[in-house]
ABC transporter permease subunit (Candidatus Choladousia intestinavium), 258 residues
Amino acid sequence: MTSISADKKKKGGGKIRLWAVLFWLLVWQGASMAIGQEILLVSPVSVIKKLFELIPTGEFWSSILFSAARILGGFLLAAGLGALLAALAAKSKRAEELLAPAVLTIKAVPVASFIILVLIWISSRNLSVCISFLMVFPVIYTNTLNGIRRTDRELLEMAGVFRMSSWAKLWYIYIPQVMPYFRAGCSVGLGLCWKAGTAAEVIGIPDHSIGEKLYNAKVYLNTSELFAWTLVIVLASLLFEKIFLAVLDGLTAKLERM
C-alpha cells in the first residue's frame, strides 16, 4: 500500500457537483424504469421514500448508533496505535523490521478471511471494532511513517544547531510536517472502516446493527430497504469524515498559530 499524500490532490478534483449527482440519479431512474422490476433494480424515488419511512423509527437510530460506535471505535484505535507505532518504527530500525511482516500480512489477507477468523475468537457484537481496526491500521501506519521520513532535514539540522528539546522538535517540526500525511490516511481510513465494518456485520449479524438490517433486507428481497440502508452507510461515512477532518484541521490551525 503506497502512501497517500495531500500534496498530490488536484485542485477541486475531489468535489462532488450537483449536476453530476442529478445525472447519475436520472440514469438510475431510467435503468429502473427500463427493467420494470423493482425487486431487481429499485428506483431512487422508492429508496428515498423507504428512507423517510425508516427515519422516524427508534430502531433506525439505535442501529446507526450501535454500528457507528463500534466502527469509529476501531478507526480511532487504529489511528492512535498506527501513529504511535509509525513513530517507533521511524526511530528504531529493529522496530520497523519487527512490524513489517505484521503490516504486510494485514494488507494482504482478504477482509472476508479476517471476519471468519475473528468470529472464532470474539463475539459478533464486537466484530466490527476489530475488522475496522485491521483495515485502517496499515493505512495510518504507512502514511505516518512516510510523513516522518519526509520531514525537512534542514529544519531538523536547524533544531540541532539551536539545541531544541525533543518535545519542541515534535511540536514545531514533526507534527506540522507529518499532519498532511496523517490526514490523508484518515480520510481514506474513514471510508475503509465503514465498508469493512458493515461487511463484518452482514456476516456476523449482531443484533440491532446496520449489517443485520442489510442481511434481513436481502433475505426478504426488500430491495428498497437494502438500498436505503446502503445510502445511510454512504451518508454516515461522508458525515463522519467531514466532522473528523474538520476537527483535525482545526487542531492543525491552532498548532500553526502557537
Remarks:
- Confidence is low (pLDDT under 50) at residues 5-13.
- Residues 166-204 form the longest helix (39 residues).
- The CA atoms of residues 128 and 200 lie 6 Å apart.
